[in-house]
């Protein structure tokens, strides 16, 4: 699988992702500058777009959803069942085929009730607003976000983390590096995690 990270601007340094395998393509969180997204789609999605994957329903991650779907009406808009923007409801741990690759759906509530991460080939983790480089997303449910981060932390250390915003010192890195550098992934309990969130505010 080939992953293209697109720095699309958007509401706040948004990142959109295009992934391809075997001539098939998917797009994650279409938003931001269409003059960045559209050329990438034209170059890499020559045979069409199979999926549009949505990490959660916040508008800053969906700015180009309708425009992209008009150009690729065959693409399935996929996400959490609680997300009103999606057409195909995905179950936790469901897998989606893309060429020779597999994309696993991981429910990760906390930032929002409908937050989902996508794990492609056990190598590429697209985290939306659940996990950033050096930080985490705003926690509507601190308990939920703490549990979701614990789930992600169990993945292999060489997994590459791709966040929904470019907020950190680098735009992406391995999970092992993130666990070493991100204090939110090293909280021993929920109380400590909540205190870290307060300190971030």
Layout of secondary structure:
Layout: E1 2-9, E2 14-21, E3 24-28, H1 34-44, E4 51-53, H2 65-71, E5 76-79, E6 88-89, E7 95-98, E8 101-107, E9 116-120, E10 124-128, H3 142-153, E11 160-163, E12 173-174, H4 175-181, H5 190-200
Parallel strand pairs: 3-4, 4-5, 5-6, 10-11
Antiparallel strand pairs: 1-2, 2-3, 7-8, 8-9, 9-10, 11-12
**CATH level-two architecture:** 4-Layer Sandwich
**Spatial order of the strands forming the largest sheet:** 1-2-3-4-5-6
Low-pLDDT sequence parts: none
**What is the fold-level CATH name, i.e. the topology?**
Metallo-beta-lactamase, Chain A
At the first level of CATH, the class is Alpha Beta
The termini sit apart by 37 Å
Quick structural overview:
This protein has helices at residues 34-44, 65-71, 142-153, 175-181, 190-200; strands at residues 2-9, 14-21, 24-28, 51-53, 76-79, 88-89, 95-98, 101-107, 116-120, 124-128, 160-163, 173-174. It has five helices and twelve strands.
Q: Could you list some keywords that capture this structure?
A:
alpha/beta, six-stranded mixed beta sheet, 12 strands, globular, 28% strand, 201 residues
């Amino acid at each position: 699988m080939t992953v293209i990270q697109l720095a699309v601007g958007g509401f706040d340094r948004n990142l959109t992702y295009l992934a391809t395998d075997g001539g098939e393509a998917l797009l994650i969180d279409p938003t931001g500058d269409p003059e960045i997204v559209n050329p990438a789609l034209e170059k890499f999605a020559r045979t069409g777009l199979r999926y549009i994957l949505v990490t959660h329903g916040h508008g800053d991650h969906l700015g180009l959803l309708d425009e992209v779907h008009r150009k690729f009406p065959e693409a399935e808009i996929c996400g959490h069942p609680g997300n009103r923007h999606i057409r195909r409801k995905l179950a936790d741990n469901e897998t989606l085929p893309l060429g020779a690759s597999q994309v696993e759906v991981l429910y990760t509530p906390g930032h929002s009730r409908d937050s989902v991460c996508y794990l492609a080939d056990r190598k590429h983790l697209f985290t939306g607003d659940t996990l950033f480089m050096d930080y985490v997303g705003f926690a509507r449910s601190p308990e939920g976000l703490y549990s979701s981060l614990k789930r992600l932390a169990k993945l292999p250390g060489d997994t590459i983390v791709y966040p929904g915003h470019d907020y950190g010192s680098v735009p992406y890195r391995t999970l092992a590096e993130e666990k070493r550098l991100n204090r939110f992934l090293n909280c021993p309990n929920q109380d400590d995690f909540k205190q870290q969130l307060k300190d971030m505010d």
